[in-house]
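Escalation from tier 1.

The customer reports that the assembly of two entities below gives different structure tokens on two consecutive runs. Tier 1 could not reproduce it. I'm attaching the input and our single run for tier 2 to review.
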Amino acid sequence: MVGLQLVAADLFPRGVLPYLLGGLFIGLGVAVIYVGTGISAGASTFLESTLSYASSVPRFQRYRASRDWRVLFTLSIVAGAAMYSLAFGEFGWTTDVQPWRLLAGGVLVGVGTRVGKGCTSGHGVCGVGSASRTSIVNVATFLAVAIGVAQLVAALGVSP
Amino acid sequence: MVVGGLLFGFGLAASRMARPEIVLDFLQLEDLGLLFVMGGASAVAGLGFFLGPRLFDGAPLTGKAYERRLKSMDRDVLVGGVVFGVGWGISGICPGAAYASLGIGNVAILWAIAGMFVGAYAQGYWRAHRSATGPEGQGAD
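Tier 1 run:
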């Protein structure tokens, strides 16, 4: 028993409950949208659909039909997170991860999520939730690569 | 849509996924809590995907027929997954969590959001160019 508790404290230093509760809310959000509207909401298509306001590249124009609700969805995500942080006194938190990491990571995430047809919410939540084989393959791929890269970055001594 | 988005953002903030540090801790295998985020989220979402079509003939708000979200499997899914993984591993951010991070007041995340738009634009431009000039042009997915 003691051994098991040690392993648990080691693997989950911040406990499990906040993660589980947060995950349940994320899933509930996706479920509410799907049951109400028939739409599987992913967060990353917003990038391309919003570009259609500003760019005439045909690739982005495909998303004209969905771009308005995607903007609304994204603003609601921002607002929902703001509600949580204001309610629990966590508003105003900023990351210490260096800007170049955020920017470079962001560019690659932007390319990868669009080439790979989805992100952690589209593939990870909607796709895995509906047992899509494509999504499971995509999630397994990006998880494995991300773990390797994060280890490498840490090993190079980049922190934060 | 708004209610769902609010819940989604609330959950991202509550799960701490909106903090790149927590995601990086997970990827460095120092805190595996994120497994519960994704597990919990896909389980509840899966329940919605299961129940929706059984409760209603079509979506009550839009009249849209319920469809499964099945995307075709091809090389792009793997290539995209690898590129996404490198980016996620470097920065600890992904699209939904980045929007939520802005909501908790994290202004620095604008670097990441700007980066994502640049990346999305670059691939759209490049692919539009490729399908216009390439002989076989893999075209629409």
